[in-house]
Write a structure and sequence with these properties.
This protein is mostly beta strands and 214 residues long. The protein has a single domain, classed as 3-Layer(bba) Sandwich (Glucose Oxidase, domain 1). The chain contains 2 helices and 13 strands. A 9-stranded mixed β-sheet has the order 1-13-11-5-7-9-10-4-12, with helices on one face. Strands 2-3 form a two-stranded antiparallel ribbon. α2 links the parallel β9 and β10. α1 runs parallel beside α2. The termini are close together. The relative contact order is 0.26.
Length: 214
């Protein structure tokens, strides 16, 4: 099996979303600490980051009080889920027509916009490709288990109603944003893995997402 990575690397000082803190690392023990009496050396550090850092998954509690948290998400929706890749190139407002007739039941539907080419530039935070509420309803009607996109947000940034988050997370469908390298994926036949840590009370968290392909 080939493994194709579809997540961004986390680097100190990088910006994922306007107004949210950038990740930083704190070294707790370094190789010169002498903690192990010269018999061995270890490096231990802590990473301080917002849950919305890099490529991450949203749980329903991100949008809804009392919703399912990261620890409560079923691995059936996060690990080894059959992939359906949908191209939406040069489209800002992605509507339901793109998904009509597609076999989405039991699949992770990942939308490729190629917006990730702007990663770590000011353009990344501009007018972004996004799914409409009607498109998200089409995913639910089709039985999708997971929704992903290689854009700064699955919603249009100016729309504070956040209809895509509202629709998908209400139905328990995890959302993965800031994906990348989707051009390397097959349209179908792969299996996505995008499991965050089992954080009790956690709403969002980075993932090292990848797709297994025969």
């Amino acid at each position: 099996m080939q493994r194709i990575e579809v997540s961004h690397k986390i680097e100190m000082g990088m910006k994922t979303y306007p107004g949210l803190p950038e990740p930083r690392a704190e070294v707790l023990i370094d190789y010169d600490s002498g903690r192990y009496g010269g018999l061995s050396e270890f490096y231990i550090a802590s990473l301080h980051c917002c849950g919305n850092t890099g490529t991450y998954v949203d749980a329903p509690i991100h949008r809804y009080r009392g919703g399912t948290d990261l620890a409560g998400l079923s691995l059936d929706r996060l690990a080894h889920v059959p992939l359906l890749l949908v191209d939406a190139l040069d489209v800002l407002s992605i509507g339901p027509d793109l998904f009509r007739g597609l076999k989405m039941a039991g699949r992770a539907v990942v939308v490729r916009t190629e917006w990730s080419r702007h990663w770590r530039t000011d353009a990344y935070f501009g007018e972004n490709p996004h799914l409409t509420q009607e498109a998200c309803q089409a995913l639910l009607d089709g039985g999708a288990l997971f929704a992903g996109i290689d854009s700064v947000n699955i919603d249009a940034l100016p729309d504070l109603r956040r209809p895509a988050h509202t629709t998908l997370l209400a139905a328990g469908v995890p959302i993965c944003e800031h994906m990348t390298n989707l051009s390397a994926l097959p349209k179908e036949g792969g299996y996505i893995h995008a499991a965050p840590i089992a954080w009790v009370g956690g709403a969002t968290f980075p993932v090292r997402a990848y797709v297994l392909v025969d």
